[in-house]
Amino acid sequence: MKNKYIDLIEQTFEWPQEEFEVVDGELMFHDVPVMELIKQYGTPLKVTYLPKITRQIEKARRWFNVAIAKSDYQGEYHYCYCTKSSHFSFVIEQALKSNIHLETSSAFDINIIESLHEQGLVSKENFIVCNGFKRNQYIDNIAGLINAGFKNTIPIFDNKNEVGLLSMRIKNKTKVGIRIASEEDPKFEFYTSRLGIGYKDIVPFYHNELSKDPKFELKMLHFFINTGISDTAYYWNELAKCVNVYIELKKACPTLDSLNIGGGFPIKNSLGFEYDYEYMAEEIVNQIKDMCNAKGVKEPHIFTEFGGFTVAESGATFYKVLDQKPQNDRELWNMIDSSFMTTLPDSWAINKKFIMLACNRWNEEYERVFLGGLTCDSDDYYNSEAHRNAIYLPKFHPQKDQYIGFFHTGAYQESVGGFGGIQHCLIPNPKHVIVDSDGEGNFTTKLFAKEQSYKSMLKILGY
After folding, report:
1. What is the full DSSP assignment across 378-396?
2. pLDDT computed for residue 68 by the predictor
3. In whole numbers, what is the pLDDT of the chain averaged over residues?
4. How many Å apart are CA 419 and CA 408, to the nearest integer?
5. Contact between 47 and 88 (Cβ < 8 Å)
6. Phi then psi for 24, rounded to 5 degrees?
7. How many Cβ atoms sit within 10 Å of the Cβ of residue 190?
8. Which of 58, 150, 249, 334 could form a disulfide with 145 if both were Cys (CB 3.0 to 4.6 A apart)?
C-alpha cells in the first residue's frame, strides 16, 4: 500500500521537478540540501537562492527576443526590474548582473538608484522608469537624477498635475512617458485603475500640455493589467485598446517610440502549475506588430517590468512543527514556530498560495493537517494548497522533528510584513540567509540578517 508522503507527491504531480527532488527522504531545493541549511541556521528561516534571479531574467529575455526574431519585429526588447517586489541590495545587485534596467515607484527608490550608481552598479545610461503617484519628494528626487545626467530616466506621468511640478525642477530636456488608466477585470471592485490617465484623455493631454512644454520629449506609453499577463479575452482586449492608443499617440507625436506593457508574468504557486510563457511572449509581440503594421506605424520598443517573476521563485521560508493540537474528531493542528501573518502576509491578506512541502521524513506515512501560526489571532493559519482544499504532511511524531518549507516566497513578503519593524504579537522576523551556487553543485551561504531581537522591537516602541 502506497501511503507514504513521497507516494502522495509522486502520484499527484510529475516528480522530481526543475527545482525540487528528494534524496534519502529529505528535500533538495535547486540542488541545495534543505535540511543542511536548517541544521546550520535553525528555524524559522528565510532563504534567497540568487542564481534563480538570473535564470528568470535570462528566460524572459530569450522568450521575447526569440519572438521578435520570429516575427521580424522592428523594435527592441528591454527588461526592467520592478524594485518594489524586493528592495534588498542582494536582489537588485544580482539582477543588475544581467544588464537589466530598473523601475521605481516612490521617492526612496531614487536614493537606492543613487547608491547603486555610487557603487558602479548602475550607469547614467540605464533606463530608470519612474512610476507611481508623485508627491513633491519623489518629483525632487527624479529631477535630481535627470539634472545629474541620468539621460534615460523616464518619469511616467500618472496624473496631469505632475507635468508642471516636474517642469519647474528640471534644467534640460528630458524623456517622459504617460501611463494609461486601464480598465479592470469585470470581477474587480471598481471599473478603472486609479493609476494613470484615461484612454480618451491621452492624446488631448499630449496636445494641450506636453507638446507645449519644450522641456519634455514624449518617448513611452505605459500600461499595466492588474490581473497579470494571461491568455484571456479580457487581457487581449485591454492589450488591443492600449496598442490602439499608442498608434493614435504616435501619429500625433513622432518622438514616441516605446510601449511599456508592465509586469504580470505569473509565478509558480503549485507543483501542478502550467503556463506557456513562450506562447504568450510570441502572441504579445505578434499582436503589437500586426496592429501597428495595419495602421502604417512602426512597431515600438517593448519594455516589461517584471518584479515578482524576477525574484519570487528565488525565495523559500522554513518552519519547524512545534506540536500537534487535536481540536476535535477531524482537525489536527500542526503549530509552527513563527507566524504566517508576519512572515507570509500575502497568505493572510489576499489568500495567496505558495508551494508547501515537507523538508524531511518523506518516507513516512502522511495525514491531513491544518497549520497554525504563533500569534493569538484566528486568521493566523494555512489550510489549503493551490491544487486542493487540504494540506498533507508526514504524520506527527513527538520524538521526530518535522520541518516544512514554503517556496517561491521571494517577492513582497518582507516589505508587506514590515521587515525589521513591529510584528503582530511581537513575533520576531526570522533569520535571512543568502545562498549562491557556482553552477557545478557547490553552494555557499551567507547570513544576511539575524533573527529580530526583543531589544530592537522595544526601541521602536519607545521602551
Report:
1. TT-EE--BTTBS-EEEEPP
2. 98
3. 95
4. 18
5. no
6. 55, 40
7. 8
8. 150
Instruction: Grade residue 182 by pLDDT with cuts at 50, 70 and 90.
Output: confident
**Beta strands at 381-382 and 355-358: parallel, antiparallel or unpaired:** unpaired
* 4, 360 Cβ separation under 8 angstroms: no
Q: For the CA atoms of 307, 246, 232, 406, what is the dihedral angle to 10 degrees?
A: 0
Helix (H, G, I), strand (E, B) or coil at 122: coil
- Cell numbers at 459, concatenated: 526601541
One-character DSSP codes across 55-104: HHHHHHHHHHHHHHHHHT--S-EEEEEEGGG---HHHHHHHHTT--EEEE
Sign of CA dihedral 142, 143, 149, 152: positive
Question: pTM value?
Answer: 0.96
> 212: which DSSP letter?
G
Q: What is the DSSP string of 234-300?
A: HHHHHHHHHHHHHHHHHHH-TT--EEE---------STT----HHHHHHHHHHHHHHHHHHTT-PPP
What domains can be seen in the chain, in order of their start residue?
A: 5-42+313-460 (2.40.37.10), 52-306 (3.20.20.10)
Residue 67 contacts by C-beta under 8 Å, 6 or more apart in sequence? 73, 278, 281, 282, 284, 285, 286
Q: Which three cell numbers stand for residue 338?
A: 513563527
Query: Distance between CA 450 and CA 432 in Å, rounded?
Result: 7
For residue 370, what are the β-bridge partners? Answer: 333
Per-residue pLDDT tens over the stretch 347-390: 999 999 999 999 999 999 999 999 999 999 999 999 988 778 88
Distance CA 313, CA 408 (A): 4
Placement of cell 523601475 in the chain: 103
Ranges assigned E (strand) in 355-454: 355-358, 366-372, 381-382, 391-394, 402-407, 431-437, 443-449
Report the amino acid identity of residue 159.
N
